[in-house]
Write a structure and sequence with these properties.
This protein is α+β, with helices and mostly antiparallel strands. The protein has 2 domains: 30 residues; 59 residues, SHC Adaptor Protein (2-Layer Sandwich). Helices cover 38% and strands 22% of the residues. The protein has a 4-stranded antiparallel beta sheet, with helices on one face. The longest helix is centred in the N-terminal third of the chain and has 28 residues. The chain is globular and about 30 Å long. It starts with a helix and ends in an 11-residue tail after the last strand.
């Protein structure tokens, strides 16, 4: 009987770990790996934030957005035509706070 009990414990434990790992993957994929809310920008705010971010980066394509990012009220990720990615942080009034290459942590000169 104890072998059956141990087997059940291993199966349940493995299932819990698999679910936790899957949940972490979803959170990271959705932009939840930082202190921000992970909520995408919607509606008119999305249109305005996207336009400001694309103007700031000199073009490209918006690849992700987030409301209440830890570095600003809005974050717009822009994939530039050269393949690089830039995170543009905006305040509530859609003014650029800073912009940085994704993962670089530094400013690329887009601060205003």
């Amino acid at each position: 009987m104890s072998n059956l009990k141990n087997r059940k414990a291993l199966i349940v434990g493995g299932s819990v770990l698999a679910l936790a790992a899957g949940g972490a993957g979803v959170a990271l994929g959705a932009g939840g790996g930082d202190d921000g809310s992970g909520q995408p920008i919607t509606g008119n705010a999305l249109d305005r934030a996207s336009a400001v971010a694309l103007d700031s980066t000199g073009g490209g394509q918006v690849s992700a957005t987030e409301v209440r990012d830890e570095e600003g009220y809005y974050e717009v990720e822009v994939k530039k035509n050269d393949g690089s990615q830039v995170d543009v942080h905006l305040d509530r009034g859609f003014k650029v706070i800073d912009s940085s290459g994704d993962g670089s942590g530094g400013s690329d000169g887009g601060s205003e």
